[in-house]
Amino acid sequence: MKLLKSLVIFTAVSFVVFACGEDKKKEENTTPNVPTIRTNGLKIAFYNQDSLTKHFRYYVEMDSMMKAKQLRFQGELQKREKTLQNYVLTNEEKAKSGALSGFEIQSIQEEAQRRQQALMQYQETEGMKLEKETGELLSVISKKIELAGKKYSEKHGIDILMMHGAAGQFIYVSPTMDVTTEFIAYLNQNQKEIEADMGKIKK
Prior knowledge:
The protein has one domain (13-198). The protein is built from five helices and three strands; from the N terminus they run E-E-H-H-H-E-H-H. The chain has helices at 49-55, 57-96, 102-156, 180-189, 191-198; strands spanning 13-15, 44-48, 160-164. A three-stranded mixed β-sheet has the order 1-3-2.
């Protein structure tokens, strides 16, 4: 269960028609140098998904937040497992030394089973909650990137903006169509707007 492993899903294609006005921000040049291709004048570009997850600052921040939660969950789980193991080992030693009656041994076994069931319940419940939170966060980020891709394409007159990645359907895309650097710069420059749209997320 890892943010970056199996749950990273970004919308692959955004369609736009005409370019909008120039952005007032000039922190970085986000204008892509993409040639117009095909005889019908379509302007097609792509961004690299892996680069986006590494250099879009908001995604990196959320990824770090979820990793921290995952580590806390694993730490708590290990702590509870250790407590249960100590309980069982301690009482096993007492039983071997003859310090426990048959009734006490039975009671301890029942308590150990109860604790084991509680541990399994905790692992399942909290694990599912963390997985759900991760999935929901990625879904929202994906939607915001899709909307940002639409605005970016409208601004620069791109007709089709594709997502390209290792698991993508495009076997080869000409490097001349790559706008990854410019698109990431655009996302980072508009991070506050993206965060505002997503609402306050507790870390």
